[in-house]
Amino acid sequence: MLPKAEAAYFAIADISGYTNFLAAVELDHAQDIIADFMDTVVKALRPPFRLAKFEGDAAFVYTTAETIDGSLLQDAIEGAYFKFRRRLRSVRQASTCECQACVAMGDLDFKFVIHHGEMVKQKMGGREELAGRDVILVHRLLKNTVAEKIGGRAYALYSDAAIRAMGVDPVAQGLIAHRETIDVIGDVTLWARDLEAAWRQEDAQTRMQVTRDDAYVMLEFDIAAPRQTVWEFFTVPGQWQKWWDADTIVEDSGKGRRGPGTRNHCMHGNHTVVEEMLDWRPPDYFTVGITLPIPGAPRIVMTRAVLDGPNGMTHLELRVAKPKPKDREFVDGAAVKYAERMTKAIAGLRSMLEGKQPALDAVEEPALTRSSGRFLTEPVKSGVRG
């Protein structure tokens, strides 16, 4: 029987500067550094993506999900890049090694190419391989002229097919229009995000998180579902409305991308609760300012944290910020009602999610490349271990 074609999103995370890095440094720590950074990025991409295979200086990942919220997919790509940059910074601060590889690791960077199309799965040499025109196309798109246009090596390059599948407006989101001509395939319309600029904005963003220690009131729940799934059901209006008691939830981001400044209008009958996003750190937490439909009601600030829980569960913490003394009585009363409503809603969410989705570890995929961390513990000088 011929393999069945499946629709999929494809992405390739490719290390920029890989060839020059390996050619100019000692291999002793170089491969360990590469493995560490690649491991960081691939872990951050799972889910929604799963690993197809490593390809030298790149990781090829994909997902066959029928629909993916455009904001969630972009968060996954940019979040993976941000984690690489944080890891690079922390490693450079922690490492005392003076070998050429450790000194030159700052020359490494990442670029991502994302496409949507069809593929078939084939067994070759005892392992599963992805094949098809669109698999070829996403690989061909790695060779492009985007770096010259944006003036940097760190970018996310989306095919127009991926943009249309995600249902986003690339112009409204500030993506840069681009075009490449691929032999045999022809002209391809593309959209680029400058990840270096995105990282600078992310790194400079003021954080507003209600911590456990600072919380005035905190609700906690464990849900037997993947963390990314719980995040999606708390942030995507269409998923949120499936379990939360609201007639309609309308999202207004101004540019079609979730983040600070996004407003959610939760309508129940003639009453509307407005939540404004104050801080956004997917998929770890987000902080909102809540305005209730009550004259003179104070704005309530809450952080919703989605964390790794015990035994593979997802741990949810809803942390309410300390109110001003004059507002405590109001917040106390509102918190009691909110706790009752949320406890009931979480019961519905649990019945909807628990046991319905396989754990990521149950999905067969290649093992991640692991770093031994030797470059942090075993200094190398002039190619000789000290």
TrEMBL record:
InterPro entries: Nucleotide_cyclase (IPR029787), Polyketide_cyclase/dehydratase (IPR019587), START-like_dom_sf (IPR023393), Uncharacterised_Rv2561 (IPR020503). This is DUF2652 domain-containing protein. It comes from Bradyrhizobium brasilense.
